[in-house]
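ok so I'm stuck.
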Amino acid sequence: MIGGLRGRLATKSPERLLVDVGGVGYEVRVSLSTFTELPEAGVQVDILTHTHVREDAIVLYGFLTPLEREVFRLLIGVSGIGPRLALNLLSGLSAPELVRTIIKGNAGPIFAVPGVGKKTADRLIIDLRDRMLKLEAAIPGDAGTGAATTPDGSDADLEDILSALTNLGYRQAQAEKALKESREAMPEAPIEGLLRESLRRLAGLG
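replied:
not stuck anymore, here's the structure
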């Protein structure tokens, strides 16, 4: 199993990366939370991975921190949570936010993530609360405040944000409202910052 990749970030999008390792390109699926923390394409990166083996494919999921990978693995261990939904959860909430939300027993932000019903949110809290308590000490004090890497954007950049949010499952009107509010609150923010803030507002944390 592939546990990590070190190589050049060839391309990146809100849903997946291509990492060039010695001339071999590895496609890696990532959460929106991870995407917002990535450097520009062309830079060397270290990506932690989880290898998911299916009957028809081997899929790599990528993470920038051990905490996010561990939370992902805990999520897919819960009945009814597959890798895609786990990535949706880590897109709607960063790993530190999700850990704290489950510890507090607050189902609201979890239920706000598209594809997660109330029963599933409650199950996550019941099944993972004790395990998340063990991870709480690993949360950095300033999680989710990574340095900006992209200048404030063009209309195409903003369309990319809306596309990423709607692909995650948020309704077009919800995504547009969250992005508009984020731009008004953070007019000088880079694209990654606007995406992160939009996700926070959609989860009710903004």
